[in-house]
């Protein structure tokens, strides 16, 4: 199983808005080949830090989704003020992992 | 759901040994109240980096396990050379999260 993890930071005052946006997401990723699940984790210590964790059967499935029109559309849906806030506070480079033990 | 995430770094030459140790773990955590699951993720880009991700029903369940004799025992089982290697390369501070969206 393949994991894609993104660390997002927003102004603490906007974190609830960002969580609401995730909860109201269109679910475009759901139909993509090899998609297993998506979770959003809120940091207990770092105010305004969220981790977005998606699971895929293989790296190739994830890469195919990242190049898809659905991926672009999912970003385009985000309210511009909120999207800019995330961008300003920083969207760190994506980290990717293979699940090697359970 | 509550997530505890630890980032471990070892010399790249020892990463397979560390993964094997996780695969052969005694499973002492399994019986603890509120434990949901444990995964070990191997970084695709950073050689020698692993994330250990455990899931709990609540923060209190995780805290109780961290204070338990089973937690101490699970660490004591690790071969000393390997344990020191992880310590030298760095065990970063634990980060904890609440799952807020799926």
How does this model look, in words?
Two copies of one chain form a homodimer. With 102 residues, chain A is of the alpha+beta class. Chain A has a single domain, classed as Alpha-Beta Plaits, CATH 3.30.70. In chain A, 34% of the residues lie in helices and 31% in strands. Chain A is built from four helices and four strands. A four-stranded antiparallel beta sheet of chain A has the order 2-3-1-4. In chain A, β2 (35-43) and β3 form a beta hairpin. The longest helix of chain A has 10 residues, at 80-89. The termini of chain A are close together. The A-B interface holds A 3, 19, 22-23, 25, 37-46, 50-51, 59, 95-102 and B 3, 19, 22-23, 25, 37-46, 50-51, 59, 95-102.
Number of helices of chain A: 4
Q: What is the helical fraction of chain A, as a range of percent?
A: 25-40%
Number of domains of chain A: 1
User: What pattern of helices and strands is seen along the backbone of chain A?
Assistant: EHEEHHHE
Distance between the termini of chain A: 11 Å
Lateral strand order in the biggest sheet of chain A: 2-3-1-4
Q: Biggest interface between protein chains, with counts per chain?
A: A-B, 26 and 26 residues
Query: CATH first level of chain A: which class?
Result: Alpha Beta
Number of strands of chain A: 4
What's the overall average pLDDT of chain A, rounded?
91
Structural class estimated from helices and strands of chain A: alpha+beta
């Amino acid at each position: 199983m393949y994991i894609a993890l993104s660390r997002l930071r927003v102004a603490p005052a906007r974190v609830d808005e960002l969580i609401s946006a995730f909860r109201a997401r269109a679910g475009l990723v759901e139909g993509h080949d090899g998609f297993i699940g998506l979770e959003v984790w809120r940091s207990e210590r770092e105010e305004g830090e969220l981790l977005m964790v998606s699971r895929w059967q293989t790296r190739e499935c994830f890469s195919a989704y990242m190049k898809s029109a659905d991926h672009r559309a999912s970003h385009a849906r985000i309210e511009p003020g909120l999207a800019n806030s995330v961008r300003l506070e920083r969207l760190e480079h994506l980290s990717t992992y293979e699940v090697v033990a359970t």
